[in-house]
Sequence to fold (95 residues):
Amino acid sequence: MNPLIVQPYVKVERAMIDFEQKSIVHHCELIIYTDRIKTDRHEFAMKEVFDMSYKQVGGGEGFLYLHTVFGVYSYMLKDHPTEVIKVYKSLQAST
Fold:
C-alpha cells in the first residue's frame, strides 16, 4: 500500500562516547497510510489514534503529538506539519 503522506522528524539520542556525552541525531519518517500510522519504532492502526496536534517551540521547530490508546507520543519536527494534520483529519472524518 502506498503512503498518503510522509513527514520527516528528528530523534535525538544521548550517548556516552569516550567519557563525553554526545548527541546523536537520527532522521526518521512518520508515514500515514489509509489504515495506519507508522514511525521508526511504532505502528498504530488508525482506530488506535484519537488525535494529532502540534506545538511550536521556537525557531520553526516544534513537536507533533500522536494521542493514542497507548498514550501520547511526541515527534520533533523542523517545520509545521500542516499537510500531515490535514490528511489525518480527513481520514478521521471519513471513518
